[in-house]
Amino acid sequence: MKLRQLEIALQRCAGFERPRASREQYQTPATLAARLLYDAFVSGDIAEKTVMDLGCGTGILAIGAALLGAREVRGTDIDPEALRTAEKNAALLGADVTFIAADVGSTEKIDPCDTVVMNPPFGAQKQNIHADRPFIDCALAIAPVTYGIFNAGSTAFVEAYIAGRGNITGRVAGTFSLKRSFTFHTRDLQEIPVEILRIVRA
């Protein structure tokens, strides 16, 4: 499957029915999800691999990994409603994905894998400052390779945070197209600069 084909397929995924601002529940744009997944695919980190989507939300990254030929794909999220939507999305696209209700703060229900893909919270809400740290910690604990979406300019922070535990071996700039989802949003569409980081466990 080519990049454009993947993007078109992922555009069919439904978003959150009732998104919660406190959890920064924003649907990962299909263009950005496809870019992350295709970079991972070209690097040999998807096909025939066991892939985990941490904080999978409605499942777009997990589903894309399955469409690119991952041997086994699992997605985990704390929100049961989001997981129900993820299951519907997977069925719609014929993707074989196992979705699990679990908190990334505890790895008891999260088995080791070859590759983690994730779009962790950016910590934009006051109550969510550093909300991406548990995701990074969990990813390093369960997989040798991680691909994550972070706010532009986060590379230095991530490098310092994972020092001695992992290294950033790839970085791709991108844009997160954020549609108006909550009353505090002042624009119908906001383009947020982001970066996709490839992290390899030390």
In short:
The chain has 202 residues and is an alpha/beta fold.
Please characterize this protein's 3D structure:
The chain is α/β, with parallel strands linked by helices. The protein has a single domain, classed as Vaccinia Virus protein VP39 (Rossmann fold), CATH 3.40.50.150. Helix content is 30%, strand content 26%. The chain is built from 6 helices and 7 strands, in the order ααβαβαββαβαββ. The protein has a 7-stranded mixed beta sheet, with helices on both faces. Strand 1, helix 3 and strand 2 form a beta-alpha-beta unit. The protein is globular, with a radius of gyration of 15 Å.
Describe the secondary-structure layout.
Blueprint: H1 3-10, H2 30-42, E1 50-54, H3 60-67, E2 72-77, H4 80-93, E3 98-101, E4 115-118, H5 133-142, E5 145-151, H6 155-161, E6 166-179, E7 189-201
Parallel strand pairs: 1-2, 1-4, 2-3, 4-5
Antiparallel strand pairs: 5-7, 6-7
Helix pairs in contact: 1-2, 2-3
How many distinct domains?
1
Structural class: alpha/beta
Question: Which H/E pattern describes the elements?
Answer: HHEHEHEEHEHEE
Number of strands: 7
Mean pLDDT: 89
Q: What separation lies between the terminal Cα atoms? A: 31 Å
Principal-axis shape: globular
Radius of gyration: 15 Å
Pfam family, one: MTS
Domain Methyltransferase small: 33-131
Organism: Methanoregula boonei (strain DSM 21154 / JCM 14090 / 6A8)
GO molecular function, one term: methyltransferase activity
